[in-house]
User: What shape does this take?
Amino acid sequence: MTTTKTAVVTGGTSGLGEAAALALGRAGWRVLVVGRDAERGAKVAAQAGNGSEFVQGDLFSLDDVRRLASELARRAPALDLLVNNAGGVFSAGAPTVDGLERTFALNVAAPFVLTNELVEPLATAQGRVVNVVTGIMHGFKTTLEQLAGPKASGGMMAYVRTKLALIALTRQQQHRLGARGITFVALHPGIIPTTRFGHTMTGLNPFTTVAPFFAKVFRLGVTEAVAAARYVKVGTEAVEPGSYYYEGVVRPAPALAADEAFSSAVWSLVEQQTTPARRAAA
Assistant: This one.
């Protein structure tokens, strides 16, 4: 009888997601590598070993997120770890097929739906969900209207807002689903200058031009290997349920994300934005 545990890593075909998948593989885990590039995904799965597999999915389509979840549940009826790693920042532009701003769609809607669809296999394994976020100032604020709807826009501010929302959702997930035996945490793995973060933005982009230079000069960042080790630590070792892990260490969540009324309102907003009925009415 095998004792290998199974993890799902979204955005696992390159960058930090790839590093995390390989680190989990070295730790003895079977990894279901989620991405859009089948060739790269197959290579990562082969390198991860332990029977790891690539599973193709388009996180910009909620219908495909649900199809993906069904396929993941088929391959892992007992799922020990879900790492919602895929994320990005996008300039203002055309919405997704579901009518969502793209930054919100990838950073909030997709992990919300994927997690909800995988509750049963996660509960079966008494598993864990790691939502990958970012470092956010304690007093940072946003409104629900800025997250989703006509006033939502792309760019770096949208990225920070959506990651704040994901921290708030992590707390709500623990509150609403923790009784099923699932543990939820949010992780900021650190600044990794070598990733392709921001490459999807148009125009002059500081994240692909001056930011890597300053990160190197002032030693602000960490390597992908160091960040991946934090994924493994927070994904496999003892944690405080519902907490925010800043570079692998528990830190108080940003004040707004920790506010019960706000986090509950975010849950309701995202639930409303991701229901099939909403899309049919749009």
Summary: Residues 6-281 form a domain with the Rossmann fold fold (CATH 3.40.50.720). The longest helix spans residues 156-177.
